Each structure stands twice: as C-alpha cells, then as structure tokens.
C-alpha cells in the first residue's frame, strides 16, 4: 500500500485482519471478508464477493449481502461484463458515483444476467465501488459494494480502505485455499489408508480361508465339509446348484421351508435360463421379508459346474465376498476332482460290466467283483434307463448323461449302497444285488416304486429329456446277469415299439406279450387280420362300436349285465351286437380256442392299431 492510511482506517484494517485470521475455513473466510468490509465502510449497504472460475471463465458470487443469494448465485459474469467484470479486466479499483453511471454499466450485462440481477434487488444502487482481489498480480476476484442511500457517497478514504482489505483478503483466501487443499489431501490419505487396511484385512482373511479350504480338500473332506466351513466362517446360508438347477450341496444357519427352497430355486433357474454366468446379486422375498441373494459361477464355460448361492439377511461385505470368491475356486477344483474320480469309476465299472453282460466270467472278473463288493453266488438284477434328448450336440449329451447318472446314483446310494450305475451309449445300466433270495418279488416292486419317484424328479430336472426304464428279473449268480440285462433290453424294445403310455416296464409284467418280442411286426399284424379282419372292416364309421363291444365283453368275463352297464346300453342291445359280431366273424364265443384267439387279437390290436393303417396301405 503506497497511500498512507488514517488512524480510523488502520483500526478498521486491524479489525478486518483479526476477523480473517480467526478461521482457516475458506467458506467462512469469504463470508467474513464481505461482512466485515461492509461493516467498516459506512456508505456500503450491500455487496457481493465474486471469485473467478477458470473452467467457466466467469466470475461467480461466493457471498452476498443485500441481494437474494438464491438468485444471484445463478449469475455468471464474463470478464468486462458490467461493473464487476470491468474491474476484473482492468485489475484496478473503480467507482461508479451516480445511479446513471451504475445503470449505464449494468446495461452491458447479458439479458439473462440483467433479469437475474433485477430479481435479486428492489432497485438499482445510487453508487457502486468495485475493487479487485489481486494475488501475485493475478486477479482472483472482485469485491463489489453498493450504496442504496443517495445521501451516502463512497469517499477516497473508503477506496484506500477497500484496497487494503482486498490485499488482506487475497492473503486470507490463499491461506484458506491452501488449508482446504491440505485438508482434502489429508482426507484422501485417510480414505486411502482405510482402503489399504480393508484390502489387507480382505487379503488376510481370504488367504486364511483359502488355506483352511485347501486343508479340507487335502484331507479329503469333500463338498459337505467345505460348505459347512463357509457357513461357519461367514454366518451365511450356502446352496450349490449344478447347471440344470439341481441342488448338489447346502449348508444353512437357519431352517429353510420347502417354500423358501422353491424361491431360491426359481432365482437360480432364472439365471440359468438367461445364461448369466457371472457374479449376480438380487433380492427375493421369504415369508414377507426381503433377503439378499449372491451367486458365483463355479468353473468356467464351457466346463461350468454350476452356481454357488448365498442367501443373506443383509448385503455381504466386501471382505466376505472376496473370501467366497476364493472359495469358489476351491469348490471348482473339488468338483473337478469328483468328476475325474467319477470318470475313473465309470471306466472300471464299465469294463467289468461289459464282460459280465457278455457272459465272460473268469477268475479275473470274479476277483474284480469282490473289489466292487459283489459276490458270485448273490442274486442280481439289471435295469436299463434309455435317455432320449433333443440335444444334437454330442458334448452336451455326454454332460447331461453324466449329470443324470450322478443324480440317480446319489438317490439310490441310501437304499442300495452296493448297486452301481454305468453310462453306456444312450443308456444308463444299473446292477442291483440281493443276498436274501426270498425277498426277490417284494424287492423288484420296491425298485420299480423307487424309479417311479426318481423318473418324476428327473423330469423336473431335465424337462426336455425323455426316460424309459426296462427292468429284468432276478438271476442267481454272476454268470446269469447277462440274461437279466437282455430282459431289461427287451422291455425297452417293447416300450419303444408299441403304443403304451408306461415309462417303466418289468419283464415279469410282460406276460404273454413276451411272445410278441419273438415275432416280427408283419407276423403279428397278419395274426390280427386273420382273427378280426371282417370285424375291423365292419367297424369302420358308425359301426365302430363292434370292436369296443367285443373287447369290453371279453374283459368282463362275458358278463352281460356288467358289460351293458359299462357300455351304457340295454342288455337286449348288447345281445343283438354280440350275435351280429359272431355272424360277422363266423365264430362261436362258446369255443374256448376261438375265444382265446379273439382275446389275444384284441389285445394286440390296441397296440398295433396305428401301425396297421400304414401296413394296410402298403399291403
């Protein structure tokens, strides 16, 4: 400052300096600058402190007195625009002594800024004093003071004081900005330190978890132990599903109802259907309460094993998420190990069963049987499950059969621990053993019931796949196993060739139908025509009830009353039809031989009706 200051000015400047030094907060400093400046300059009724913003190349109001701040804060002044902009541009103190000069200079504002300014004050000031805030010869802002009292005018003493205040303000603002930058840097360092601490904690926890899981794997504990460990380490509920949505393993901190399990399954099914094989988060509702779901893919495409799902009452923290990601890798390796063991077992059992099903029994095979907990003098039964899928991809078909085989093996293991399953082409072959020969008939019914339940579950897990099961009879001794396998195959052939709705067929239930398997379709259809041709011809159109009438009559042991009731006709009508049928076929129902032939022909007709139409076309 070159101009000497009066005693009053020095006193005011000391007051301003004390106020500015009372805080290091930049916002507080800026507000104090304007408030104290207006308080020591008598002519000032209001004012604005503007700071320059390099990004927008404009002056922005930081503190106001006498103006509506909500409106004025929207003003953006370009250098040279209005009184404040001119002061910024010229870097010197400017005094606009009259309202006329004030209005003339205000007219240099943009239309938008004029509108905002006129909204912020009731009328234009009578005079205005503007001073630049200079820092190292650079203008960083402007203090604009306004007098709304025509009796008061800014003096030379006010100009000197304002210049001195602006000099103090520049220092205070620089100090405040420096403090703000240091404070922000400190906050960044603290945030970074927190992140590093969390990262170290996450890494330490993940390493420990990885070590613990690796120990479990090395000890051969298996998936159930791994899942239990994860539950204990995180306090969450874990579910492991395969690629078909079948539950492989689970470990829960609380009991889940059947309805809850269905909700989890639906969430997993949706992910599998959309093929979103990456980390997924979501929310589902259990009994009116929202829970959080988190899934991790196990394995990598195309060898994806399934999905690990966590059900939690609140979102998992990043430390536990990182730990579970490590666990996913261990689970993938464990499943890969299980797949390798399964393949080895399949190879060993497959080679053994191939020899047995071909009747090649020798000392090596007998020794092999003992290793598989099978003994030559036991009673054995073979079942064959035919798998028909729409998939044209060989690899997909192989994976599906493997999953089906593992799924069935798991369900059968409890009731038949010594049984085993072998994949052979498009079939799964099951070998069952029985030590007590007296239980054979009961046990075969039990096996059929077990498979009925199992096929229902398979249909739910693999809806696009068809299953047919053939079950052979119990055979005494290992050397007779091939006969049971042959019978099971005959059952599959019957299910495939004839129009029956059954999915499971036991050879012992075939009865007379076994004879069909020894003859060609042409021979069987010829027999049907030999017995029923006139009646089939006569039964076309409106007289079709003849076949139905004869079939119902024979099945009801030729009981007229029961047959009439079942057909909903009068007994006299039935007698008429029966007499008519005997004339058409030229037969006598009293002849047991003829009646047996008719009964067999009718049974076969129900199986071959569709094929007979094609046969008759080509005949």
UniProtKB/TrEMBL annotation:
Gene3D superfamilies: 3.30.450.40, PucR C-terminal helix-turn-helix domain. It comes from the Bacteria. Residues 25-183 form the GAF domain. Belongs to the CdaR family. This is GAF domain-containing protein.
